[in-house]
From TrEMBL:
Residues 345-418 form the Pyrimidine nucleoside phosphorylase C-terminal domain. PANTHER family: THYMIDINE PHOSPHORYLASE. SMART domains: PYNP_C (SM00941). Its EC number is 2.4.2.2. Catalyzes phosphorolysis of the pyrimidine nucleosides uridine, thymidine and 2'-deoxyuridine with the formation of the corresponding pyrimidine base and ribose-1-phosphate. Homodimer. It comes from the Bacteria. The lineage of its organism: Bacteria, Bacillati, Bacillota, Bacilli, Lactobacillales. Keywords: Glycosyltransferase, Transferase. This is Pyrimidine-nucleoside phosphorylase.
Length: 432
């Protein structure tokens, strides 16, 4: 079998066989296939697409390119959630202890951020001492005992994906749905989950800017999950403005604590409850969404979800006192006010720009290896549809410097004020 023949077949729009795809993934992971040939194949896939069967073969080959976690020692149905990411997306942090407090087993392997704000692991590391690098044994033990754990990838999960993703990033092939979907699902299936709820974002702060593209990705992900024999559902949710008000690692931890205190922003609460309800149904702990939601609302109201978060922090060597006193989280030296220059209504937000503003402050990474400052970020005071008076506070910038006019200008330019607007729908579609 020759790589050049496989490239030619895909260039000409032919479907690749399982044997051809296995040959490519095995050879590239071992280093037998050079980057220039893999780049050619990725570009051919970008232009010629792949059938659902091909995508299934590709996901399976990437899944088995390394370790597959065996979570059979954890009793019950294991359920997880994955988000395609966005600005202010801290949902995993309140969601994990909430579903665990309701009795679900939630092993969550998360990542770091590159660009915009930090990833889930970066946010959790804003908690003093919190260890996100659990051994496989400790990860399994914590999920068994507490019901959840959030950690970085253990062992050698889907190494083919790591190599291919790095190549996609420099060959302008990141947006190809077969490559996105196989990347996401190879890692999730390798993590050993039985059920998966997907949060696919759409809007100007999302990877998939249009709802049609988001739906196509969601459908591809759901098909892969069905082929793999797991329970799976995808929600397409809004990212035309940040989730919640906080953008930045420690700020988002504090907002997550508000949610677990049965308070916090309405959109973060609603999405946490909705995703959690589907997870409880997959775990067979509720018969329908309303019953699942009632269980979760009860766990928020009686304090058990907050107590579960403390348990999780302690188990991962963090300082759980931040739950009762969020001022113990890292604090920026300066708070800079961003005021409105006109009266009206917030009609829209350049969500990407707000994420980039937080990144420039040090809240995210411009390149791999950059150190994230957990204290910096933005706190919005308005959302789309809110009225604004001239001179009213739009946002607060938390920075290490007393003046950041560059960031003030970015934030001012990203919040659009006009005559009228209504809040966008949070949940656009559910794809089963």
């Amino acid at each position: 079998m020759r790589m050049v023949d496989i490239i030619q077949a895909k260039r000409d729009g032919l479907a690749l066989t399982k044997e051809q795809i296995d040959f490519v993934i095995t050879g590239y992971t071992r280093g037998d296939i050079p980057d220039y040939q893999m780049s050619a194949l990725l570009m051919a896939i970008y232009f010629k697409d792949m059938t659902p069967v091909e995508i299934g073969y590709l996901t399976d080959a990437m899944l088995h390119s390394g370790d597959v976690l065996d979570l059979s020692a954890i009793p019950g149905i294991k359920v997880d959630k994955h988000s395609t990411g966005g600005v202010g997306d801290k949902i995993s942090i309140p969601l994990a202890p909430l579903v665990a407090a309701a009795g679900a087993k939630n092993p969550m392997i998360s990542g770091r951020g590159l660009g915009h704000t930090g990833g889930t692991l970066d946010k959790l590391e804003a908690i003093p001492g919190f260890d996100v690098d659990l051994s496989e044994a400790d990860f399994i033990n914590e999920v068994t005992q507490i019901g959840t754990a959030i950690t970085s990838a253990t062992g050698n999960l889907a190494p083919a994906d790591k190599k291919i993703y790095a190549l996609r990033d420099v060959t302008a092939t990141v947006e190809a749905i077969p490559l996105i979907s196989s990347s996401i699902m190879s890692k999730k299936l390798a993590s050993g989950t039985d059920g998966l709820v997907l949060d696919v974002k759409t809007g100007n702060g999302a990877f998939m800017k249009t709802e049609a593209r988001a739906a196509a990705l969601a459908q591809a992900l759901v098909r892969i999950g069905h082929l793999a024999g797991i329970k799976i559902i995808a929600l397409i949710t809004d990212m035309s403005q940040p989730l919640g008000y906080a953008i930045g690692n420690a700020l988002e931890i504090a907002e997550s604590i508000d949610i677990l205190n049965n308070q916090g922003p309405a959109d973060v609460r609603e999405l946490t409850l909705t995703l959690g309800s589907y997870m409880l149904m997959q775990a067979e702990l509720a018969d329908d969404l309303s019953g699942a939601r009632h269980i979760l609302e009860t766990r928020l109201a009686d304090g058990s979800a907050l107590a579960k978060f403390k348990e999780m922090i302690i188990a991962q060597d963090g300082d759980a006192s931040v739950v009762d006193d969020p001022t113990k989280l890292p604090q920026a030296k300066h708070a800079i006010q961003v005021l409105s220059g006109q009266a009206g209504v917030v009609t829209g937000m350049d969500t990407d720009q707000l994420g980039i503003a937080s990144m420039i402050l040090g809240g995210g990474r411009q390149k791999k290896g950059d150190v994230v400052d957990p204290a910096v970020g933005l706190m919005l005071h308005k959302k789309i549809g809110d009225s604004v008076a001239n001179g009213e506070l739009l946002a607060t910038i938390y920075a290490e410097e007393p003046q950041r006019q560059d960031v003030v200008d970015m934030v001012t330019g990203a919040i659009h004020i006009g005559d009228a607007a209504s809040a966008p729908e949070l949940i656009h579609q559910v794809i089963e």
